[in-house]
């Protein structure tokens, strides 16, 4: 599935910062199962990588 989102720079950077800082325990607190937490984390990492490809990669 392809999802395209248009974000202003400041929101793209804010999302990238969040995804950089979010870890398994953050996803697990919001998930109904371990598998869902892993799936959420995997999706977050894919979005983070896509942002990085566009030059939005906080250190």
TrEMBL record:
InterPro entries: DUF7706. It comes from the Bacteria. This is Uncharacterized protein. It comes from Noviherbaspirillum saxi.
């Amino acid at each position: 599935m392809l999802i395209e989102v248009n974000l202003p720079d400041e929101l793209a950077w804010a999302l990238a910062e969040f995804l950089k800082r979010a870890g398994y325990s953050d996803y697990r607190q919001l998930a109904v199962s371990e598998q869902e937490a892993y799936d959420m984390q995997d999706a977050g990492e894919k979005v983070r990588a896509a942002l990085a490809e566009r030059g939005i990669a906080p250190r």
